[in-house]
Amino acid sequence: MLKLGVVGYGYWGPNIVRNFSSQPGCRVVAICDKNPRVFAQALSRHPGVRATSNPDEVMSAPDIDAVAVVTPVSTHYDLTKKALERGKHVFVEKPFTGTSAQAEELIELADRKNLQIMVDHTFLFNGAVRKIKELVDGGVLGPLYYYDSTRVNLGLFQHDVNVIWDLAPHDLAIIDYLIGLDPELVVATGGAHLNGMADMAYITLCFPNNILAHLNVNWLSPVKMRTTLVGGERKMLVWNDLEPSEKVKVYDKGVQITEAHDESRQRLKDLIEAKVFEVGSGPAIHDLLVSYRSGDMWAPRVDQTEALQLEARYFLDCVASGEKPFNDGRAGLRVVKMLEAADESLKRRREIVYAPSR
Amino acid sequence: MLKLGVVGYGYWGPNIVRNFSSQPGCRVVAICDKNPRVFAQALSRHPGVRATSNPDEVMSAPDIDAVAVVTPVSTHYDLTKKALERGKHVFVEKPFTGTSAQAEELIELADRKNLQIMVDHTFLFNGAVRKIKELVDGGVLGPLYYYDSTRVNLGLFQHDVNVIWDLAPHDLAIIDYLIGLDPELVVATGGAHLNGMADMAYITLCFPNNILAHLNVNWLSPVKMRTTLVGGERKMLVWNDLEPSEKVKVYDKGVQITEAHDESRQRLKDLIEAKVFEVGSGPAIHDLLVSYRSGDMWAPRVDQTEALQLEARYFLDCVASGEKPFNDGRAGLRVVKMLEAADESLKRRREIVYAPSR
Amino acid sequence: MLKLGVVGYGYWGPNIVRNFSSQPGCRVVAICDKNPRVFAQALSRHPGVRATSNPDEVMSAPDIDAVAVVTPVSTHYDLTKKALERGKHVFVEKPFTGTSAQAEELIELADRKNLQIMVDHTFLFNGAVRKIKELVDGGVLGPLYYYDSTRVNLGLFQHDVNVIWDLAPHDLAIIDYLIGLDPELVVATGGAHLNGMADMAYITLCFPNNILAHLNVNWLSPVKMRTTLVGGERKMLVWNDLEPSEKVKVYDKGVQITEAHDESRQRLKDLIEAKVFEVGSGPAIHDLLVSYRSGDMWAPRVDQTEALQLEARYFLDCVASGEKPFNDGRAGLRVVKMLEAADESLKRRREIVYAPSR
Amino acid sequence: MLKLGVVGYGYWGPNIVRNFSSQPGCRVVAICDKNPRVFAQALSRHPGVRATSNPDEVMSAPDIDAVAVVTPVSTHYDLTKKALERGKHVFVEKPFTGTSAQAEELIELADRKNLQIMVDHTFLFNGAVRKIKELVDGGVLGPLYYYDSTRVNLGLFQHDVNVIWDLAPHDLAIIDYLIGLDPELVVATGGAHLNGMADMAYITLCFPNNILAHLNVNWLSPVKMRTTLVGGERKMLVWNDLEPSEKVKVYDKGVQITEAHDESRQRLKDLIEAKVFEVGSGPAIHDLLVSYRSGDMWAPRVDQTEALQLEARYFLDCVASGEKPFNDGRAGLRVVKMLEAADESLKRRREIVYAPSR
What angle do CA C313, C318, C319 make, to 5 degrees? Predict the structure, then answer.
């Protein structure tokens, strides 16, 4: 029986408590929040739970095995450090920390004390993402060309982070999970229209093997969009997380350079050099080189189990077995490094070479 | 009666001939294309027209007043120059030229000979774009925040230009038309997965007054998208060019920084500095500063007249009156400069400061 | 303080308890369900509540002022009757009863004992429906032409009622609310493909003033649809309840018979009689008579307050004031009569003349 | 070389001329229309064609092998009869004739003279319909449950037919093609809001084997819809003809009555009779009987060839081979009979037993 303390009971905290409570082999024994108003509700829903406004009471409680840190990012380092120092495993909200130095220190600390850190990149347990991972790893898409995400809506403005730290961690974690490589280059552009903090940003990440990723994150969009295109050599897919069903659509569509005979290639080269085809005769030449494929579309059934339920189960299993989770502190660190690089590029208005960490 | 010669009768040429032919006061007298196969069709549709495979025959014909250049971009400079030298007005496909130096030379030549150049940025005559222009100029949106376009599909690969020169001219011309300012900065990122030419690109343009523009252009998308968000301080809109009706949706949605009393601001600052609100109490603070507005949505009726028909009419009117069109050589040059800057940024992997030209 | 007993704690019961519990001036004091499994959950969520599997304990409890009957329709009559006989107001699920005779008896009983009956036609408190009611009553749509609803999905099969009694009450209540007239004719067709009970049905209702209503209800549809068209002389609207935003779209579209001059009419008549226009010349004649209007579309902001919350408030207010609710037993009876007529038509395979009741 | 005369050059005529002209082995030699304005255009597009305003000139021309009758329905009988009497094959617009008696007379005449009649049910050559036919015939859907079509838009009002004769022939022809049976019953309801002619109608057709068809046709809808559901025992599909791609979506979804053990069935029966499960315990019982299946969705690639091009080819082939087309006069007659039955039901306000004809 793992006994969990939950620090932070704002927007996400109740979901954490509900999902861990419902796991066999786990009991939420304490909830902590600065705001006394949230206690009544938490206690009425979870009668036996201790409530406190002092995080230290959770950290020092001898009957607590693990702590879930569900607070704003600026507090993650302090709270996680305290928990680890007192021998508790940590389940911490994304982004892991506010700086990569903090993340590295926490990873080292956890390793030394033989404790687990799991960073709550919930989307990695989402049915659509797991299906996409399966398609990528199974070679269905072929070698990846790109990952292109649009994640925009009106607000919610955060008081302490810009739109990159608020919205980009989801996609960065998914990209890290799907591609499994460190980016070579991060370029971010953006704008700040209201209070000096970036409220919209465009982030490009260049990965080895000519894989490109792009994120469009925006707090000032009149419509909510959660659309991701993933292109591969053999197939391409669209993941629309707002579709009630058919969230993932796989297209048997592609482009390939035709294996033109050498004479064709030579003829093309001659034509280009001679500029003889300049007047309106493009299509014929173009047909020599590129061919398109357009077949069926297929929307695989996507598991609808609540992602956080699977993740809570996985946390309990990792604590029990001692096995490192794939969304451990190092995974969290990689995301923080990409966020830092994007921030730095935004500030310096130029691309940032990303220092690999794995 | 303006007599027009059309050079290039490939994909777009037939539309040019059809739309100019149907204008009162205009007659298409000659069609030129290298490809003899296209003649039969052109002649059967337009019985009285002369057909030739030699552009010079069009350029030197004394009965021709104006020439439409409907060929690949690499030939625009030569053909336009010849036409102007022989005293003919020119209607030329976008992008205007392959380099800004060429564009400048042609503008100078036309001015000297008192001839018109109109660059065929057809989208400026599209009903949705004209409606958006009306909303922006009428102050309905308020000061602009951003223009964010997604223009992606599978192919068509061009043999002589990359995806930026193929797809971006549409949005760059619209942006130039709506914003009326030169960008201060152009940043482009992208990838080339097939034949060494960029097949997908992301272009950010920073304009004065904190206006941001972004273009997502991609030849490797499994689905076709033509979606543009335009955000302003007072209202925001979505233009989906693939919607059969309701192409433009205007949202009475917005965000504003609340005029908090000084004490609130001070209290907020204190809280932030004291870090007393770190545990789960974000929303209350955040409410002090930002408020959202969410009202009706409104889809104004959009004129469905074929854009090229209006543009052909406008060309004839400008030639008759001698008035400079708003989509003249200078407008074409501004688009070419933005294309060059994007290309350069893509190559150098860094942002390019854009040299203003107007 | 109104004290409520809730009988039935299956699919909908928890919503009833939650919404009434959260009203000031109301306390849920007892919950009854045959199934002992549901008790634990109900008690943990609502610690002070009495739980029982015997409905009579609720009916006879002296501290209970009103009873919510949230059970299958076959039990509504018995339970409601018991509650009324013991002097309790009743909030009863739709459809009100299994027969109109039962409904009439209950109405008479409640009137005699001066008690309230409210039938839970929740959709009448839905933001979209209230907005449509406002548009109809305000004359925005003009005189109504039709109400056309598609309400289809896969399952849920009911063990005791056919698809008409399961899905049609929603629209019948809305139609009764919007039109305020009794139908003159009800025609239903349908099919039973699995267990002998109708699993899909089409119901037409003809109202005075040439108003037509149609319902398409289907348990065997591969996709879920909740789309209603409402046509009026001046404007028409589409209500798509599955849209996350823009649920109601009002179209400035219409058709009208042109006020043709008498000579035109006469000429038309002559033409028709002479059959001189038979070969391909239809459009010209047709233009004489009908003209279309196509203007803006407008999606008014729709209140997102949970419907059941408003309805619970309204029940408490009606009990307090003694005012008859608009969704009283008589409204419930009108819906039951339409259901009976549809059932009868389905069985007899012919239209049924509806006996008005108000 | 088949020489074709085309009578009627209004809305659809130009498509007929264009598609037959482009077939090898066919030449359009004459075009006839009462309206002189349409001649100029027809002649400029098809220089060698004879034009006339007198249909008899086409009918009596010795060099004409076949006639396409592309006029309003009220003229089909007269024109087709004349053409057949003069030994010409006939390609005639749908609906075939205004009455079934006329259709029967024409079929008999054509048979006697050994001539072909093809009724232009263009949709039978549409890629989506051919794909659906393939899925039905291949057993992919399993035994059919229903065909449910919504075909609504604003206008076009016809001067000589009601909405049933205007919009329903499409679906009736498709239903006849897919199901291959005569309906046992036709029930239609509808309304006439403008000029006394039905402008909206709902038609149910009951076929043997418990197959149900329903058509929703409406000239007064603010939005255009072309959505058809086809349900089968094994799979179900949605055909949305307005989707630019993915017109047909096949769902691996279904419902089946579980083979419950006899004791379960008996227990259920006992429960129902004893009414012991009345309070909120429905789901458990219901689980005994019905189970749902929800798997992948699949959108097969649909051939985009213009339907009329395939149909023109088929007409030429049938004339050449003497083989009866599947869309012959008898197929046209079956559609006319269903239209008559719907009209009659609408008028008499009751269901009509359909007299089989094949």
Answer: 100
Task: Supply the pTM of this predicted model.
Answer: 0.89
Task: State whether residue A140 sits within 8 Å of chain D by CB.
Answer: no
pLDDT 10s digits, B105-129: 999 999 999 999 999 999 999 999 9
Q: Is residue D242 less than 8 Å (CB to CB) from chain B?
A: yes
Give the distance from residue A248's alpha carbon to the nearest chain D alpha carbon, in angstroms.
10
The 10s digit of each residue's pLDDT in A290-307 is 667 788 999 999 999 999
B250, amino acid identity: V
Q: Predicted confidence band at C358 (pLDDT cuts at 50, 70, 90)?
A: low
Distance from CA of C307 to the nearest CA of A (A): 22
- Judge: D191–C212 Cβ closer than 8 Å, yes or no: yes
Question: Which residue in the block uniquely carries the two structure tokens 């051919």?
Answer: D130
| B199 and B220 housed in the same domain | yes
Q: What is the pLDDT of residue D245?
A: 86
Token look-up 């993650």 returns A76
Q: Is residue D288 part of a domain?
A: yes
What's the rounded Cα separation, in Å, for the pair C132 and C235? 12
**Residue D255 sits in the same domain as residue D322:** no
Is A184:A353 a contact under the CB 8 Å cutoff?
yes
Q: Using the beta-carbon criterion (under 8 Å), do A47 and C47 form an inter-chain contact?
A: yes
Quote the strand ranges of chain A, DSSP E. Answer: 2-7, 26-32, 50-52, 66-69, 89-93, 117-120, 144-154, 185-191, 200-207, 211-218, 220-232, 236-240, 248-257, 290-299, 352-353
Of D47, D223, D244, the CB nearest to B47: D47
- What residue in C sits closest to A44 (Cα-Cα)? C45
| Within a domain: B332 | no
What residues make up the domain containing A246? 125-252+295-303+337-353
Question: Would you state the structure tokens that stand for residue A38, as one six-digit string?
Answer: 């949230």
- Regarding whether D107 and D77 lie in a shared domain, the answer is yes
Residue D62: exposure state from Cβ atoms within 10 A (0-12, 13-18, ≥19): exposed
For B246, name the nearest residue in chain D, comparing CA atoms only. D223
Q: Is B318 buried (19+), middle (13-18) or exposed (0-12) by CB count in 10 A?
A: buried
> D283 is written with which tokens?
């789901």
Task: Round to whole Å and give the CA distance between D34 and D79.
Answer: 14
Helices and strands of chain B, counted as H and E runs: 11, 15
Task: State pLDDT tens for residues D125-145.
Answer: 999 999 999 999 999 999 999
Contact C221, C108 (CB under 8 A): no
A301 contacts chain C (CB < 8 A): no
Residue D295: its chain A contacts at CB < 8 A?
A: 301
Contact D203, D188 (CB under 8 A): yes
Q: Is B218 on the interface with A (CB under 8 A)?
A: yes
Please state whether the peptide bond connecting residue C237 to the residue before it is cis, i.e. omega within 30 degrees of 0.
no
Work out the average pLDDT over D164-169: 96
pLDDT at A221: 95
Clarify whether residues C344 and C198 are in a common domain: yes
Pair C199, C219: CB distance under 8 Å: yes
Residues of D in contact with C220 (CB under 8 A): 145-146, 231, 236, 255
8 A C-beta contact, residue B351 and residue B185: yes
Q: Is D31 among the domain residues?
A: yes
pLDDT attached to residue A287: 46
Q: pLDDT value at position A294?
A: 80
Are C172 and C182 members of one domain? Answer: yes
Q: Is residue A126 over pLDDT 60?
A: yes
Helix A127-137 vs helix A163-179: crossing angle, to nearest 10 = 40
Residue in A with minimal Cα distance to C225: A244
For residue D279 the two structure tokens come to 């309070």
Which ipTM did the prediction report? 0.90
Average pLDDT over residues C72-81: 96
